[in-house]
Design brief:
CATH architecture: 3-Layer(aba) Sandwich
CATH superfamily: Carbonic anhydrase
Strand order of the largest sheet: 2-1-5-6-7
Low-confidence stretches: none
CATH topology: Beta-carbonic Anhydrase, Chain A
Helix content: 25-40%
Structural class: alpha/beta
Radius of gyration: 18 Å
Order of helices and strands: HEEEEHEHHHEEH
Mean pLDDT: 97
Oligomer: single chain
Shape: globular
Number of domains: 1
Length: 227
């Protein structure tokens, strides 16, 4: 057995000893307070980012590009892993979390600009992102450079995923759809690992968000607003 797996199993033993009693109330059913959709990235510790150590509290999904979209023969629909807790466990909060320096957004940007030759599985994921990010290319400021453009596209991607949730007939109107960005690259000026609120139910105007949500006004921060 390689050393990585040996180490992971040792850490799991610590986890099981610590968490054993925490499963008492959720062994037979779950009713998570929120479903979170995060990017599959080893630098984004999805539950730990929220300080979550309680089984049953968050229904956490991860994929390339923090997508809520799944392609089916019937067309693009809300992904089943995102929709499940909304449809079956009473969850009424959906959080889409992008992150600075996102590799999926970077690859989508490069694919749109020059084309990429990726394995079919990765190409499929990029194909789900490209039509949603393409309109932003003409909106990007000219003076932000490559990294600045990509981090603005991270926000734009989160916005489009929130829009897709809100426009889906499968997502009830009472579900709150929140868009955030996790920053570990000192882009937003806060602490590394801080989550910044950029979209609440489709609203992206920072002043409007701060006024409407004073309890989190200091966490509202966007790199850009666009028409």
């Amino acid at each position: 057995m390689n050393e990585t797996v040996v180490d992971l199993l040792a850490r799991n033993a610590d986890h099981s000893r610590e968490f054993e009693a925490r499963f008492d109330d959720v062994q037979d059913a779950q009713h998570p307070d929120a479903v979170t959709v995060c990017c599959s990235d080893s630098r984004v510790l999805q539950d730990h980012a929220w300080g979550n150590d309680q089984p049953g509290h968050l229904f956490t999904c991860g994929n390339i590009g923090n997508r809520v979209v799944q392609r089916t023969p019937a067309g693009d629909v809300v992904s089943g892993d995102v929709l499940y807790p909304i449809a079956h466990t009473g969850t009424e909060t959906a959080i889409v979390m992008g992150h600075t320096g996102c590799g999926a957004v970077t690859a989508t940007y490069d694919d749109l600009m020059t084309g990429l030759d990726e394995p079919a599985g990765i190409a499929h994921c990029l194909d789900l992102l490209k039509p949603r990010l393409a309109p932003a290319l003409e909106l990007l400021p000219d003076d932000v450079g490559r990294a600045g453009a990509i981090n603005r596209l991270v926000e734009y991607n989160v916005d489009r995923q929130i829009q897709f949730l809100r426009e889906s007939g499968d997502v009830p109107d009472e579900v709150d759809c929140i868009g955030v960005v996790y920053d570990f690259q000192d882009v937003y000026g806060g602490d590394r690992g801080e989550v910044h609120v950029i979209n609440v139910n489709g609203e992206i105007d920072q002043e409007a968000l701060r006024t409407a949500h004073p309890a989190v006004a200091d966490r509202v921060d966007r790199l850009w607003e666009y028409e």
